[in-house]
Specification:
Mean pLDDT: 81
Number of strands: 4
Structural class: alpha+beta
Order of helices and strands: EEHEEH
Strand order of the largest sheet: 1-2
Low-confidence stretches: none
Largest sheet: 2 strands, antiparallel
Number of domains: 2
Length: 80
């Protein structure tokens, strides 16, 4: 067995702690990035044949937010 560091938000891992710390800051599944797929308004749309994609319950354009430089202004964390 090997000791590895795993991202708290996705399945990425590394033997190097610093690499994983940097990854977590930029991980698209980190709620701090406010990407569509981490929002409580996100829904999976599409069909198994064509593949699923993220849609928005509010009708916002999820594709526009997939650019990591843009954060959704209506993003809201899922209530626990």
């Amino acid at each position: 067995m090997k000791l590895v560091w795993k991202c708290d938000f996705c399945t990425a891992f590394s033997k190097d702690k610093e690499i994983m710390q940097e990854h977590e800051k930029n991980c698209s599944f980190n709620p701090a990035s406010k990407q569509c797929w981490t929002c409580c308004h996100a829904v999976q749309e599409g069909a198994p044949i064509s593949g699923y994609h993220t849609g928005c319950k509010l009708g916002l354009d999820a594709c526009a937010v997939q650019d990591k430089e843009i954060s959704c202004t209506s993003w809201k964390e899922e209530e626990k």
